Amino acid sequence: MSEKFTHLDDKNQPKMVNVGDKKVTKRIATAKAEMFLGKEIISLFNDEELSTKKGPVFQTAIIAGIQAVKKTSDLIPMCHPLIINGVEINIEVIDIENIEIICKVEIDGKTGVEMEALTGASIAALTVYDMCKAISQKMIIKEVKLINKSGGKSTILNN
Questions:
Q1: Model-level pTM?
Q2: Any catalytic annotation for residue 108?
Q3: In the chain, where are the structural domains located?
Q4: What beta strand segments (E) does 97-137 contain?
């Protein structure tokens, strides 16, 4: 296998990849977080939202996810700071115990936005956990994964 890690130099030391010579392209990434809340929490929802003493759960989680997308390069050392064109986060109750969080990030840039989408979905899920933990601490963030990526060298479609 001839592949190598792009974030290591020829002396095996960490580096930030130089994207200066890359072309600017439209880049989109979508990540999904699946989360078990349990019947106890889901039963408290009214019209796809749960209001707590901390505020509306999904609305707050969406805002936290958007903030996380914008701060990804501060959290993950080798991520480039990016000018984000847009972020869409949707949270839905998918059955009597589970929710799904979808985070889509779009830029016109020289590097991908996979880490931003994954970070947005993860932080949205953690915010749901934080806001509902007074009701139950049996919640589980089951899976966070990249489901779509376009732009740059490759396209991924994992729905």
A1: 0.90
A2: no
A3: 25-151
A4: 98-109
